[in-house]
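Chapter review: from sequence to fold.
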Amino acid sequence: MNEAAERISVKEGDGGITFAVHAQPRASKCGITGILNGAMKIRLTSPPVDGAANEQCVDFLAQLLKVRRRDVTIITGESSRHKVVKVSGINAQQLQELIADNLP
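The token string follows.
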């Protein structure tokens, strides 16, 4: 497993996990760029206008983590680059493995 993936801060409970995401909107392409202060750092092509970046963030995480879109919820930070996300149907170990597999 990639050493950077081990530093992501994940909390387990209630059939899912919560973790921090640092989103970079208006990027040239979508993807994980690394771990920043315990948060998953991702690039999104959508602008932060009318919730477009949040929608793309949820879609991207659902696809990355192989869960349904409705299983991904932004708990806090809808108007910020720093978000806390809840994902149902996955555990911390699975998250760490998926992040390690998708880090550049």
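Two observations follow directly from the output. The chain has two helices and six strands. The domain at 3-92 is CATH 3.30.1200.10 (Conserved Hypothetical Protein Mth637; Chain: A;).
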